[in-house]
Amino acid sequence: MAKFAWEGTTADGQFKSGVLDASSLEEAQARLRAMQITPTKVKRSIGQIEIRLPSLGGVPLKSLVVFTRQLSTMIDAGLPLVQCLDILAAQEPDRNFKNIVYGVKARVETGSTLADALKRFPKTFDELFVSMVAAGEMGGVLDTILQRLAIYLEKSMKLRGKIRGAMTYPVIVLILATGIMSIMLWKVVPTFASIFKSVGNRELPALTQFVVNLSNTFVRNLPFYILILAALVTGFVLFRRSERGGYILDALLLKIPVIGDLARKGTIARFTRTLGTLVASGVPILDALDTAAKSSGNKVIVRAIAYVRARVAEGKSIAGPLEETRVFPKMVVQMISVGESTGALDAMLSKIADFYDDEVDAAVDGLTRLIEPLVMVMIAGMVGFVLVAMYLPIFGMAENLARQ
Predict the structure, then answer these.
(1) Residue 84 lies in a domain
(2) Are residues 345 and 290 in the same domain?
(3) Pick from 168-172, 218-222, 303-307: least confident
(4) Which long-range CB contacts under 8 A does 9-15 form with residues at least 24 apart?
(5) Considering only CA atoms, which of 135, 137, 132 is closest in space to residue 108?
(6) What's the structural domain count of the chain?
């Protein structure tokens, strides 16, 4: 909390000034309006200088899950919305999220709906969150919608963690292997080469000479290699951010053996759970399709669902156009078709998501078991190759000494 000095006029035109405690400028202004004071000047009081470190990222998903579940419980218990937000903001340990909740509270106090207040913070509350809250407010079942949203966020967090863990492990190991090999070529091999030169060993084994030449080339061109690596990384990031580049990379990802299968299952699980949650919450089907496609995280899915949405807007069902895209497995299409015909689309989408969650679990376990031995063999092979190449001349010198 900080102190804000303010000046303003009351409803009958009297000028007043003072100091009040608030977590942000928006909250201070909202409190003044609640006191029927029209603020003319509000600023942080002198002596209340707060030093903050820059935020290194958005709000953690776990914090958002806890906030959503607690807000649902408080609303269900009959507490006013503003009081709920005030309590949650006061107890929130994350400084960034605390200020966001206070900002939401300030806007609600001025008469804004919760959905409109959340919409002001799109980096924290995405389109899915705002759409479900809006549907809950319109239907008078905000507590139920928030509870459903908390369950969705928890399952999404779990799924994201599994996929990220499976993808991160081989990348980290590859980076470590590259770093180890670079250090050996940069420091270890030149040390051995200087030793061989000092003892007058002119004739090096072919394998040793190859590694020494490789090390010399690496050291000589190291700045050039760093520039190439930086250019490749920059080019990849720019290409990934472009619409066409992102689509091409997402399409290639889905075609990679093992990894592509895992990515496809994770994407389908995320899309179907999002769509099922939105449909069950009363969000219109066209808006639900649009939001669910964006939350899938894959541009191939986004483009396919855009086609489906256009066909649904023309009066067609979801299953038919979905099959025409040839992106989703036949089982998914058939289950959605059954859900549409029986009027239980949300339940069927939830079953699909649960099934693919289990598939992701199995795929992650299989991928881990496959990658771990391959990575160990690769690192051992790289290090062993260099060490054998460096020790071959030593073995030769030892053999010559034994003969003498």
Answers:
(1) yes
(2) yes
(3) 168-172
(4) 9/37, 9/38, 9/40, 10/36, 10/37, 10/38, 11/36
(5) 137
(6) 3
Residue 201 pLDDT greater than 70, yes or no: no
pLDDT of amino acid 169: 73
Taking the C-alpha atoms of residue 289 and residue 367, their distance in angstroms, rounded to an integer, is 31
* Residue 301 covered by a domain: yes
User: 1 or 302, which is more confident?
Assistant: 302
Tell whether 176 and 239 lie within a shared domain. yes
> 386: closest CA among 225, 211, 239?
211
Domain assignment of residue 205, yes or no: yes
**In the chain, what percentage of residues exceed pLDDT 70?**
91
Instruction: Return the amino acid letter for 149.
Output: L
Torsion sign over Cα 21, 22, 24, 30: negative
Phi then psi dihedrals of residue 56, to 5 deg:
-95, 5
Is the domain of 235 the same as that of 304? yes
Residues 188 and 80 in one domain: no
* Same domain (yes/no): 90, 193: no
Query: Does an H or E element contain 15, and which?
Result: strand 15-22
Residues 29, 101, single domain; the answer is no
Q: Which two tokens stand for residue 365?
A: 């376990």
- Cα dihedral sign for 123, 124, 130, 131? positive
Domain encompassing residue 39: 2-44
| Residue 172 and residue 142 share a domain | no
User: Do 283 and 398 belong together in one domain?
Assistant: yes
Cα dihedral 373, 377, 378, 379 sign = positive
Q: What does the block give as tokens for 301? A: 């899915």
Residue 101 · residue 93 · CB < 8 Å = no
What length is written for the chain?
404
Which residues pair with residue 5 across a beta bridge?
19, 43
Instruction: Kindly report, residue by residue over 308-357, the tens digit of the pLDDT.
Output: 999 999 999 999 999 998 889 999 999 999 999 998 999 999 999 889 88
Instruction: Report pLDDT for 45.
Output: 64
Q: Which residue has the tokens 């405690």?
A: 21
Displacement of CA 98 from its chain's centroid (Å): 21
